[in-house]
Specification:
mainly alpha; Sodium/glucose cotransporter; ion transport; transmembrane; Sodium/proline symporter; cell membrane; transmembrane helix
């Protein structure tokens, strides 16, 4: 690797650690500060933090790779996600921000559900916390696998400290994320996400523009049109099932704990501004990702290049089109996408372990300082579990990312929406929806129905969970747990 690229990457790592130290001084005195930044997050920070923790490496690797390989028809996934994000910011965000304060100043999603339905508090906290910790350990491992593969293909030649290039990448990514997350807590994660979100969107806008101006707009269009008649078609080869499965990705937003926790942390009255900033960032980032895939395909075709893995088109363009310093910046954007999601997942997992296990079962009267330190320890424990899972690059962890998104979306999505908006919902209905949603997704995957029908598992899981909550709540409508929405 050229010296300029290494310098740029080193500067990025130092910046992330510096932000962690800054946050350590500002917001780690108590649990609310460590887990939610004192509920005083600036709208811009909350918005970009939600976006950066959401998109991960999928935005710079997965979506451009899908466009590169298949064509414009893959854009429906991005459209579905954007529509889901719009509904999430308008329906869930303001209600969750208000109600988590009103119902006992809840610091985690399981704690809010327990306070909302006190008759089933323990069941809701335990079941939801188990789902969060297990799925996020795997989710975090998937991010570390991405970091390992990035280092393996780009950053490191030969051995490093006796480790393979892949494992060195896993360890380096984990150590940096672990350092600023453990030290600075939620504020550090949110501030680093803000910086990472800025880097990501600049990279996604810059890269396709360089290709378009370098190769010529008309030449790029002609090259894409020559690939196949359907390559630039929105509906080429798309079935009804395929369309529904693509746009159904948007259903997952309502149940992603690492995203909706940002709504809980934004300062009072800041949701409208955060919504505008967040959706604007997301729209530009998604268009940029589409541009990387399409413009990258044209560049490869026009210049006779070879690309074995479509998902590495971003890396190929970064290495071949730019000055080493700019390459370092662009690769830092890819690391930013990976690290922003890992840090958010580690912290949410830690908050569930501390608030929904340690304080609930082990030490109810733990001091605030003790809870912060336990939270740091839990971050480290989840990170170690993720490293262990990620140590085998062939473990199939990456294939579970879509399943984890569906699992969270089906288990928590209907539960969160209805708990915030439907006054007749009961605790029994809440537990039923949580269990049915997660079980349906797992059964759909285990039986191979997703592969045989082409239906993304979030669709049956979301519908089943919604019906379970509705029907069971109606059946237990006289339950004393039924309370009015405040």
């Amino acid at each position: 690797m050229q010296t300029g690229t290494l310098i740029a990457l080193a500067a990025y790592f130092i910046l992330m650690l510096g932000i962690g130290l800054f946050a350590w001084k500002r917001s780690t005195a108590d649990s609310e500060g460590y887990l939610l930044g004192g509920r005083n997050l600036h709208p811009a920070v909350a918005a970009l933090s939600a976006g950066a923790s959401d998109m991960s490496g999928w935005l710079l690797l997965g979506l451009p790779g899908a466009l590169y390989a298949t064509g414009l028809v893959e854009a429906w996934i991005g459209i579905g996600l954007f529509v889901g994000a719009v509904i999430n910011w308008w329906v869930v965000a303001p209600r969750l921000r208000r109600q988590t304060v009103e119902y006992g100043n809840a610091l985690t999603i399981p704690q809010f559900l327990a306070n909302r339905f006190p008759g089933k508090a323990t069941a809701l906290r335990v079941v939801s916390a188990i789902i969060i910790v297990v799925f996020f350990a795997v989710y975090s491992a998937a991010g570390l696998v991405g970091g390992g593969k990035l280092f393996e293909s780009t950053f490191i030649d030969g051995q490093m400290l006796g480790l393979s290039p892949y494992m060195a990448g896993v360890i380096i990514t984990a150590v940096v994320v672990l350092a600023y997350t453990m030290v600075g807590g939620f504020l550090a994660v949110s501030l680093t996400d803000f910086v990472q979100g800025c880097i990501m969107v600049i990279a996604l806008v810059l890269m396709p523009l360089v290709v378009l101006f370098g190769d010529g707009w008309g030449n790029v269009g002609n090259a894409l049109a020559d690939i196949s008649p359907d390559y630039l078609s929105w509906f080429g080869g798309l079935t009804v099932v395929g369309f529904l499965s693509a746009v159904a990705w948007g259903l997952g937003y309502f149940g992603q704990p690492h995203i909706i926790v940002r709504f809980m942390a934004v300062r009072d009255g800041g949701i409208p501004a955060a919504r505008t900033i967040g959706l604007s960032w997301m729209l530009v980032a998604l268009i940029g990702a589409l541009g990387v895939g399409l413009a990258g395909r044209a560049h490869v075709e026009m210049n006779g290049l070879t690309l074995e893995d479509p998902e590495t088109i971003f890396i190929l363009l970064a290495n071949t089109l730019f000055h080493p310093f700019v390459t370092g910046f662009l690769l830092a954007a890819l690391l930013a996408a990976i690290m922003s999601t890992i840090s958010s997942q580690l912290l949410v997992s830690s908050s569930s372990l501390t608030e929904d296990f340690y304080r609930l079962f082990l030490k109810k009267d733990a001091s605030e300082r003790e809870m912060v330190n336990v939270g740091r320890l839990c971050v480290a424990l989840v990170a170690l579990a993720a490293i262990a899972i990620a140590s085998d690059p062939e473990s199939g962890v990456l294939s579970l990312v879509a399943n984890a998104w569906a699992g969270f979306g089906a288990a928590f999505g209907p539960l969160i929406i209805l708990s915030l908006t439907w006054k007749r919902m009961t605790g029994v209905g809440a537990v039923s929806g949580l269990v049915v949603g997660a079980a349906t997704v797992m059964a759909w995957i285990a039986t191979g129905l997703g592969a045989s029908t082409g239906v993304y598992e979030i669709i049956p899981g979301f519908v089943a969970a919604w019906l379970a909550i509705w029907l069971v709540s109606l059946a237990t409508a006289t339950d004393a747990e039924t309370i009015s929405i405040r």
